[in-house]
Design brief:
Elements (H helix, E strand, L loop, with lengths): L1 H26 L8 H26 L4 H8 L4 E8 L2 E9 L3 E2 L9 H9 L5 H15 L6 H15 L11 E2 L6 E10 L2 E10 L4 E8 L1
Parallel strand pairs: 3-4
Antiparallel strand pairs: 1-2, 2-5, 5-6, 6-7
Helix pairs in contact: 1-2, 5-6
C-alpha cells in the first residue's frame, strides 16, 4: 500500500511538472497567435505526448510494483487523474490491458470469444464471426486498429438489430500480449479538444497509438 501511494504521488508530480514545461513552450510560440487553430492543436499534441512520456517513465521505474498497485489499491484497477492549469485541461486514465484479441477468430480456436458472448448472454456469435471474416478479407490482414474493430462491432450491431454487444466492447481488443497497459488521455486547450489512446508495454514503449480531434 505504501508503494502504491508513492507511485500515485509520483505520477501526479511528474505530470504537473510536465504541464508547466509545455506551458512554457507555449510562450515561445507567439508567432502562431494569428493561427489559433494550429496553435491550439499544437499545444494539445505537446500536452498529450508529454503525458504519455511521463507515464512511460513511471511505468519503467515501477515495473515491479505497478501491477500490484493497480490490482490492490484502485477502483476498476485504473489510475484516473485530472489536471487544470489556466487554459489547459488534461485528464487521463491508466490501466492494465486485459482485452481478448479479436484476431483469434482467424485461428482454429474461437472458444474464448464464444464464451465471452455466452457469459454475457449475447447471441448470434456466428453472425459476429461472419462479420469479422468479411471485414478481414477486405483488409487482407489482421485487425490492427480501433477503427477496424469498431467497424466490425457497428456492422454486427446493424445486422443483429440490437446493441447487446455493447456489454463486451471494452473486453475486445486487437493486440495479443502480456504486460501491456492502456493510457487514455483527454486534453482541452482553449476551444480545441483531443482524445488519445495508447497501448504501452512494460518498458514504456508505445505499441499502438491513435488520436482524434474535436
Amino acid at each position: 500500500m505504501k508503494k502504491g501511494v508513492v507511485l500515485f504521488i509520483t505520477i501526479a508530480f511528474v505530470t504537473i511538472i510536465s504541464i508547466f514545461i509545455l506551458k512554457n513552450l507555449d510562450n515561445t510560440d507567439k508567432y502562431l497567435e494569428n493561427q489559433n487553430f494550429i496553435a491550439s492543436n499544437t499545444q494539445l499534441l505537446i500536452s498529450i505526448q508529454n503525458t504519455q512520456e511521463q507515464v512511460s517513465k513511471i511505468l519503467v521505474n515501477n515495473k515491479n510494483t505497478v501491477d500490484k498497485f493497480l490490482e490492490d489499491t484502485l477502483v476498476d484497477s485504473s489510475i484516473p487523474l485530472k489536471i487544470n492549469i489556466e487554459d489547459l485541461k488534461i485528464d487521463f486514465n491508466f490501466n492494465k490491458y486485459e482485452k481478448v484479441d479479436i484476431n483469434i477468430l482467424s485461428k482454429d480456436d474461437k472458444s474464448k470469444i464464444n464464451e465471452l458472448f455466452s457469459d454475457n448472454n449475447i447471441y448470434n456469435f456466428y453472425l459476429f464471426l461472419d462479420t469479422y471474416t468479411e471485414i478481414l478479407q477486405s483488409s487482407d490482414k489482421n485487425i490492427t486498429n480501433r477503427n477496424q474493430l469498431y467497424d466490425i462491432i457497428n456492422t454486427f450491431t446493424m445486422r443483429d438489430e440490437n446493441s447487446e454487444i455493447e456489454k463486451i466492447i471494452n473486453d475486445l481488443g486487437f493486440i495479443d500480449g502480456e504486460d501491456l497497459y492502456e493510457l487514455n488521455v483527454n486534453a482541452e486547450y482553449l476551444n480545441a479538444k483531443a482524445k488519445a489512446y495508447y497501448i504501452l508495454n512494460k518498458s514504456g514503449e508505445v505499441e499502438y497509438f491513435d488520436i482524434s480531434f474535436k
